[in-house]
Amino acid sequence: MPDYQTILVERRGDVLVITLNRPDRLNAASLELADELYAALDRIDGARAVLITGAGRAFCSGADLAARGERTGSAGQASHAALTRHYNPLMVRLSELPVPIVAAVNGPAAGIGCSIALAADLVIAGASAYFLQAFVNIGLVPDGGASWTLPRLVGWSRATEMMLLGERVGAEKAVDWGLITRAVPDDQLMAEALAMATRLAAGPTVALGLMRRNIMLSSYGYCEALNREAEAQRIAADTGDAMEGGMAFLQKRKAEFRGA
To answer: So what CATH class is 7-201?
Structure first.
């Protein structure tokens, strides 16, 4: 496994656990962290689910403004380069991953950190966690796909409130809004998230990957969604997991999926 400088990567059974590891900076996403997270996601080495969390008191406090630009041109040009060369490719990789993702959000998930968390299929937050679109507070605009993701999760009005007011949304409110899956006591966060990731890893991996792709593409219209579902079903129905699932149903037993 590569020697990463800003993240920790370990296997727990079929789950790949990735920990953002810059606790002294509240795991602020430097360009190096974005690139290393991309690299880790690009070589999941047979893992059947991914769990992403943060070290210390935060999930991710946003982009590291002190290290964001590539020190060329204006501040705007540097920000554009950082997004198009580093952060945006990471967000696309998260969206296209062929296995499900669980985020265990501890403490703040702000800016690009909020986008990384919400790119997960299931988001579990500790009671002290919060989600923040902080851009307006520093005269910038949401990035990391937030302007696409938030309206689809919480609706136009609440997404606008998050982005224009730049106020924290606590874990319980985030559940109430439909922003995340569930909130749990802080001391139960990792156990709950790992149990969820392990459950997903034991599922029909190909079908789960196709599901997350179709969910991501569902905004392109109803007829297009029907066509994509039919194509996904064609692929899923030919897997060994589908055969096992059907046999288990008929035999009234629990299916044992193998991820193929």
So the answer is: alpha beta
